[in-house]
Amino acid sequence: MQNKINVGLIGAGTVGGGTYKILKENFSEIFRKTGMEIVVSALAEKDLNRAREVVDEKTKIYEDAFDLVKDENIHIVVELIGGTGISKDLVEEAIKNNKHVVTANKALMAIHGKELVSLANKYNVNLAYEAAVAGGIPIIKSLREGLVGNKVEWVVGILNGTTNYILTEMKENNLTFDVALKQAQELGFAEADPTFDIEGVDAAHKITILASIAFGIPINFDAVHIEGISNLNQKDILYAEELGYKIKLLGITKCMKDSVELRVHPTLIPEKRLVANVDGPMNAVLVQGNMVGPTLYYGAGAGSEPTASAVVADIVDLARNLESNNTTTIPILGFIKDEIKEKKILLIEDITSEFYLRLSMKNESGVLAKITQIFAQHSISIDAMVQKEIQEDDEIVDIILVTTNIIEKEVNNIINEIEALPENNNKAVKLRIEQLNK
């Protein structure tokens, strides 16, 4: 029995400091739950002054993180520096030195997860990454353990707090995207360079990981379709609300028999759905299991202590495995390695969805008849149509359409025909709708 577990932290930033704080301040509580002394015995950080602000004098400090991963006294290495460069090299080196690894690095797992999982399996060590998706929400554990008896049918998530805050402010306070983004930056919800958040890349990293765990497919970030919110017009948020919907940036993955949908984009959700009412910088993940039905997971998706809480949960799990001399209780991706199998990832034009369309048309008689005729020629039904109230002297009018289920390539053809009409004034706005009811 191993009663003391030595943890080596790489990175003394927000999450590193939070991890150290939890392990120290909750030491007695963690001991009561594990019977083990779990301590941060080493920290790798180039800035020695910063390191000493985070840990006490009992913790050994390495300027070179590669020295830490080779330290024979370290049982678990925790990578918290982010990125996909040196972090990948450090994780690989830790695994090759027979260390169990915990990471909060979603980009690393999404882009290099396939090879890192393979390497960890080869060296019979564990790679844990709960904090890489949705911060303090235990969604990895829920998919791999709590829902293990289910066949997961789909996973939908608000996976980025920055974009969710911006969309909330655009709706609640009638702000433009640019103003809401600036406000998010001032409050610390958005980085100085918010590109990964607002263009959907961060959410795409996370839904890629969730798809692999949900369906037993290899991690494949290159296959995900990504759209952000930077081009979202505030009027569409208001129009959607009038139709009974809210717009959220969603990560969506669905499994059919032989194929998988994997996409991130702004999405209309019925306002009565619980996930539609997750506002501000919070995250939420909705999972549909074939036996349990829908389950919703809600909480802080970022921040020092919520993310560190997930890191510590992984550390505790690995410590328990070490104590029992068992390193392979739960497969890294939730499925045994021989059952991780490729499935076709559908192109976005091959998915089927309902659509919200906003058409900008000249205020001339006969326009609606031409639009409905185009839909009829394609045998596609219009579920709802709204022509915004206009004055006689208005030259341009917005026409809002909601389609029934239609394959995306077909709606693209319809849009092309409408945009070719002489009465068309601008590019059509197309947003997908998810009912989330089955």
Count of DSSP helices? 15
Q: Ranges with pLDDT <50 over ≥5 residues?
A: none
Q: β content, as a range?
A: 25-35%
CATH topology of the largest domain: Rossmann fold
In short:
The protein has 15 helices and 18 strands. It is an alpha/beta fold and 438 residues long.
Protein described:
- The chain has three domains: 165 residues, 3-Layer(aba) Sandwich (Rossmann fold), CATH 3.40.50; 162 residues, Dihydrodipicolinate Reductase, domain 2, CATH 3.30.360.10; 84 residues, ACT domain (Alpha-Beta Plaits), CATH 3.30.70.
- By secondary structure, the protein is α/β, with parallel strands linked by helices.
- It has 15 helices and 18 strands.
- Strands 7, 8, 9, 10, 11, 12, 13, 14, 15, 16, 17 and 18 form a twelve-stranded mixed sheet that branches. A six-stranded parallel sheet has the order 3-2-1-4-5-6, sandwiched between helices.
Present the secondary structure layout.
Layout: E1 4-10, H1 14-25, H2 27-34, E2 37-44, H3 48-54, E3 60-62, H4 65-69, E4 76-79, H5 86-96, E5 100-103, H6 106-122, E6 127-128, H7 139-146, E7 152-158, H8 161-172, H9 177-186, H10 195-198, H11 201-215, E8 225-226, H12 234-242, E9 245-255, E10 259-270, E11 282-289, E12 293-300, H13 304-323, E13 344-345, E14 352-362, H14 367-377, E15 382-387, E16 396-403, E17 406-407, H15 408-419, E18 429-433
Parallel strand pairs: 1-2, 1-4, 2-3, 4-5, 5-6, 8-10, 10-13, 10-18
Antiparallel strand pairs: 7-9, 7-11, 9-10, 11-12, 14-16, 14-17, 14-18, 15-16
